């Protein structure tokens, strides 16, 4: 029974059911004429009445309330059926009911990601979530495969122009964020950074140079018009505006009260006409690649659209909450020594100067391959298997080399009066 109910909510199934019904089918054809440009003119003087009657009849059919799955096969066909009935305005009738995608309840499992990389982090007591995310993706077949695919598509120049094929790039980008579990994609895109190098790698996660950047920023009104003409982009934008709707009265700033849903809706925009990204490598501000400078009389509308990204308390809180989880997550390997934890501010400030820490890191990066695995600018397309990761991290010879190098460094520091 449950399968029958769920199937009835699928717009493809509902559309097929209506098309095969002799009563529903003509009403569906009438509705499609109503929403197709100036279709009402073709229907004659009684067009408004016919459209209203068709809508009323279909609201009591299986088509009403049907939804689609993001990234599903024939997604565009499914969405075309949904939007036939749920236009913003059909001759004065407001039929908006949130967005066409099924609700996804998602809890993120950062601990599971940490366990994936635990073998390659023996002895480490600090958590670098951006590095962990890159390693986790590299040892997961689907994540590594689809990530490699979109980066390859986004950096490969075409023979004619010498530029990338943006259409192929965005298609591969959507495929990655639609099919790879959010446990991986969200950690790659929203992991917290404390320095500009990390922030730039995070910004480059979606290869902005090909996926959405251009010499001149287009007008946001133009971009939204192009987006609304495409069923997929239009639906992703509707989902984002619904799940990330800000609220001044809500405790967490989100009208729907769900940070996870907001971030999931945000990633749904990646690879679309209005792909958002971090605006620079010094902040966590995000926005699509467009401007309101030439909006004219529609400036207020344009600013309101951009404000959904750069002045949205719900989205901002969701991003901050995701990043701040790093302060609450268990480290990969716990220290058994008493006293302040290794991640405390006191310990970090007195252990060694910042330049010494950086020097040690550079030495370890050159000796232990797994430490350098996640430091690539785009994706770190490693040819190492998960077994080789584990072996390289635990090889006694590498650990001895690391210890010896650290000893030499300490002697050098002592000789120089540190």
From TrEMBL:
Annotated membrane topology is: Lipid-anchor; GPI-anchor
* InterPro entries for this protein: GDNF/GAS1, GDNF_alpha, GDNF_rcpt
Instruction: Spell out the SUPFAM superfamilies in the cross-references.
Output: GDNF receptor-like
| Signal peptide interval | none
Which keywords has UniProt assigned to this entry?
A: Cell membrane, Glycoprotein, GPI-anchor, Lipoprotein, Membrane, Receptor, Signal
- Keyword Signal part of the UniProt annotation: yes
Q: Name one GO molecular function term.
A: signaling receptor activity
**Does Signal show up as a keyword for this record?**
yes
Q: Which Pfam families match?
A: GDNF (PF02351)
Q: Which residues form the GDNF/GAS1 domain?
A: 11-90, 130-210, 220-314
Q: Where is this region: Disordered?
A: 326-356
Q: Where located?
A: Cell membrane
Highest taxon of the source? Eukaryota
Skewed-composition ranges (Low complexity) = 326-338
Any single Gene Ontology cellular-component annotation: external side of plasma membrane
What processes in GO biological process is this protein linked to? cell surface receptor protein tyrosine kinase signaling pathway; nervous system development
Its family remark reads: Belongs to the GDNFR family.
Protein's name according to its UniProt entry: GDNF family receptor alpha-4
The organism's taxonomy opens as: Eukaryota, Metazoa, Chordata, Craniata, Vertebrata
